[in-house]
């Protein structure tokens, strides 16, 4: 199953990127996760939406051709980082590549709330008319990883309980994608 991943942090040692890479490796038997380089996308410009830079069209096509999308996001000021919102804005115009696409949302923070407010905000964004993604239902399927400093080691998510929890949520996502 081909999955395009959007990671909302371009920080060198990003926990969210570490989480995306952990998932890429751990679930490689089921998921072929391709991490999109959203940090290289230019700012969304409405004047260019019908003839976007090649890198933007490549990004949009990677979503169009994927079976599902994984969004891995930090929380910035109770919302999603601009780099992620910018990527989502590109997807929302002309060929609206996220419409109907199965999406899983996960996030990690060093603090207590595990990106809860960012994810609530993200689900609202993903419901917008130009996006209308099919997001894995939140009831029981939220992945809110807190206290990152205690759970990551050697560039990976290492906490056993969190990994087992994640295994179950990824299984739910695989079933969800297969149901389409
Ligand atoms: C943060 N951070 C943060 N954390 C949080 O739990 N809620 C928040 O609202 C914010 N706001 C915020 C704003 C800005 C501009 C920065 C730089 C940081 C802390 C954030 O969770 C922490 O820096 C993470 O490590 C960022 O994720 P990555 O880069 O590790 O993936």
Please explain how this structure is put together.
- The chain is built from 6 helices and 8 strands; from the N terminus they run βαβαβαβαββαββα.
- The protein is an alpha/beta fold.
- It has one domain: Flavodoxin domain (Rossmann fold), CATH 3.40.50.360.
- Strands 1, 2, 3, 4, 5 and 6 form a 6-stranded parallel sheet that branches.
- Helix 3 links the parallel strand 3 (68-72) and strand 4.
- Ligand FNR binds at residues 9, 11, 14-16, 74-78, 109-111, 113.
Mean pLDDT, to the nearest integer, reads 98
Q: Identify every distinct bound molecule in the structure, by name, code or SMILES.
A: ligand FNR
Distance between the termini: 12 Å
Low-confidence stretches: none
Order of helices and strands: EHEHEHEHEEHEEH
Domain module count? 1
In a few lines, what is going on in this structure?
The chain is of the alpha/beta class and 180 residues long. Helix content is 37%, strand content 17%.
Primary descriptors:
180 residues; Rossmann fold; two-stranded antiparallel sheet; binds ligand FNR; 6 helices; 37% helix; alpha/beta
List the helices and strands and how they pair.
Blueprint: E1 2-7, H1 15-26, E2 32-35, H2 54-64, E3 68-72, H3 82-91, E4 102-108, H4 116-126, E5 134-135, E6 143-145, H5 148-151, E7 152-153, E8 156-157, H6 160-178
Parallel strand pairs: 1-2, 1-3, 3-4, 4-5, 4-6
Antiparallel strand pairs: 7-8
